[in-house]
Amino acid sequence: MIKDTDIRCREIGEYIIKTKSTVRQAAKVFGVSKSTVHMDVTKRLIETAPLLAKEVDKVLQENKAERHIRGGMATKEKYLKLKG
Fold first, then answer.
1. Which of 45, 68, 80, 81 would suit a FRET pair with 54, their CA atoms being 20 to 30 Å apart?
2. CB half-sphere exposure, 10, CA atoms < 13 A
3. Is residue 8 within 8 Å of 30, Cβ to Cβ?
4. DSSP code of 21?
5. What is the pTM of this model?
């Protein structure tokens, strides 16, 4: 029996892979918390769709490796707005 949670997990996983989005971005799109998205794609998805979970994990690891760059760019933009 497929549960609504399983469907949501799969949809979120497919969205993250397709858009290369972060957990926060996916949470905003699906109207759930980032904790829920993280739990869905790291714990629940492994049980229902292990291959999809593996692909999502690759995207999340890539995002994690790049987050310091995104943070630096956000800070730069913030101070450029304040200055200008």
1. 68
2. 11
3. yes
4. -
5. 0.81
